[in-house]
Each structure stands twice: as C-alpha cells, then as structure tokens.
Amino acid sequence: MKVIAIDPAIRNTGYAVLEGDHREQKVHDYGVITLPAKTPQSGALAAIHTSVANLIKKWQPDEAAVEGIIYVQSHRTAITMGAARAASLIAAAETGIKIFEYAPRKVKQVVTGNGSADKQQVAFMVRALLGLAETPAHDAADALAIAIAHLTASDPLKAAILKREQL
Q1: Catalytic residue among 63, 67, 101, 142
Q2: 123-150: pLDDT as tens digits
C-alpha cells in the first residue's frame, strides 16, 4: 500500500509518501511545503491545496493519513491550523482516496514508544526506522511518523493502539 501523510500547518506543512506495510516501509518522497510569512493566509491555503494535490497526482497513493486535531491554547492558532488541515484534506478528498487521521500522541507512541516524545526524538526514530541518511526537518519527520503509524495500523496486533478514524 502507498500512503501520503500530511502534517498540516499554515507556513510549514510536512508531507511524506511511503509504501509498504507494518513490516517494511519504503520512502518515496518527503519534505516541507514552506510558505513565506508575507503570504496572505488565503494564498497560503491555496498553495497548500495545490501542493498536496500535485503530490497526490505525482505519487498516486492508495490512502492518505493526516495528523488529528491537537490541543492548542490559542483559538487563533487552532483556527489557522484547522484551515491548513482542511486545505490538505480537500486536496485528498477530491481524488476519492480514503483519508485517515491519527492523534499526535498515538503517532509518537508507535514511532518512539513514548506518546510525549519531543520533536527531536521523533525525528531521530524516523531516521533510524526508515534508514535515512540524514535526520529530516521536524515537519517532514512528523509526516513520516504519521505514515509509519498508518502502515503500522495494518498489523492487527498494533492497530488497537492507534484507533484510527476514517474521515
């Protein structure tokens, strides 16, 4: 199975494309969609949508996985993150592929063994698990971790930990 995973944010949206199952994963692509601070929010949302749509067109994934909504103390931040998430979800939904979401704590639990792991721990473990030559940027590492969690969900013994939701 090939999956595109998205870690949405208005300025730095992480993405990853992996193929495999719970036993073995192959990395096709990963990175960060970075938008300058001067880009208006409407332009950033359009760019996120277009970039994710182009990645889906290029890689033809079977499914998409996205980070679930996280708790933030600022309503403004929550709304902005939700808008970036929506731009990514719409790009995937337009293609008709199945979309799944994963709670950040569950993704960290699967990848590091600790649901409270920090970004450096996640990036380190992603590099080790996937045999990458370099440690990916945090947003890309988060997307890679989401993809690993999604592929791990194909293991019936680990699927219960994840409690994934299809959107």
Answers
A1: 67
A2: 999 999 999 999 999 999 999 999 999 9
